[in-house]
Amino acid sequence: MKSNTAKKPVVVCVKDDQPNLVRYGAQEALRRDTELLILHVYGVVSMDPYTSKAIGSSPQDEADAAAALDHAKDALSQLAEQPPARFVKELGPVIETAERYAAEAQLLVVGADEISWFERVLGGSIARYLVEHTAGPVVMVPHIHDLESLDGGVCVAIDDDARAVGPLRFAFEEASARQSRLFVLHIVPQGLKGSELEAERASVAEVLAGWRAEFPDVVVTTRVIFEDEVVTAVARASEQSELLVVGRPRRSFLAGHAVATRLTRTAHCPLAVVDGRYGAGRTLGTSGARLRALRRSSP
């Protein structure tokens, strides 16, 4: 499974007729100057989604798979500008196959209607696998009629975890590529007030100063929010944002399964889940550690 281009492709997993998913993937492939790979996985497998045994298909499955790719081709043909594209239908277990393609992609795009699959990506062994095998983010695209109506820039939610460097880099890169502003939601522990809250604002401002220097074209706005406000604040921000960026869950605000589920169901714009190691080895790789160091040194 080698790409026809020098760069890793943008992989879009389609279930059926999902034109918004295809259009979003095409935009990302054009932005990255790379290939678009449309993937449809089909077949009947055993109850265990990680096994590759007992795979079979019916004539109807074959017809549905062909139809899904035809829908994708039609959606792509309607775009004024199109990236080079491949269309792949593969018989196999959905999760195992998506993992394999994700390992060779720079971006994996899935639909919001695949919510049960995406919940596993957020909270279970799929997340660990993707983190270990690919540096590419996972983007969930909601089923809305007009992605073009979203023009509120890029929004990123961070806490003081060391993995914030990955989501921050991805968010700045996306804002710069889109020529959009960046809205940073900095999540702080509940109950902070007065000098402690001011120290939080100062610490995140210092961390962001380095990113501003690397991306001088990006206009940044910040807001400090408490942990119990996360879901409401992020969902509200997503109503106009072009893209919402969060870190891969571990012990951060997304660690609770109920919160993760609510966020994936309430986000109104594409949601990118980014591992903290994204862009590792490049500059500004210690933002989370810097936030904690500044917090400890504050009065």
Task: Describe the 3D structure.
The chain has two domains: 132 residues, Rossmann fold, CATH 3.40.50; 151 residues, HUPs (Rossmann fold), CATH 3.40.50. Helix content is 41%, strand content 18%. It is built from ten helices and ten strands. The protein has a ten-stranded mixed beta sheet with strand order 3-2-1-4-5-10-9-6-7-8, sandwiched between helices. The termini are far apart.
Low-pLDDT runs? 1-5, 115-133, 251-261, 285-299
Structural class estimated from helices and strands: alpha/beta
Report the mean per-residue pLDDT as an integer: 75
Rg, nearest Å:
20 Å
Task: Give the CA-CA distance, first to last residue.
Answer: 55 Å
Proportion of residues in helical segments: 40-55%
Strand order of the largest sheet: 3-2-1-4-5-10-9-6-7-8
How many distinct helices? 10
Shape: elongated
Beta-strand share of residues: 15-25%
Number of strands: 10
Elements, N to C (H/E): EHEHEHEHHEEHEHEHEHEH
Largest sheet: 10 strands, mixed
Question: Can you lay out the helices and strands and say which pair or pack?
Answer:
Layout: E1 10-13, H1 19-32, E2 36-42, H2 59-77, E3 85-91, H3 94-102, E4 107-111, H4 115-123, H5 125-133, E5 138-141, E6 154-158, H6 165-178, E7 182-188, H7 194-214, E8 220-226, H8 230-237, E9 243-247, H9 257-266, E10 271-274, H10 287-297
Parallel strand pairs: 1-2, 1-4, 2-3, 4-5, 6-7, 6-9, 7-8, 9-10
Antiparallel strand pairs: 5-10
Helix pairs in contact: 1-2, 4-5, 4-9, 7-10
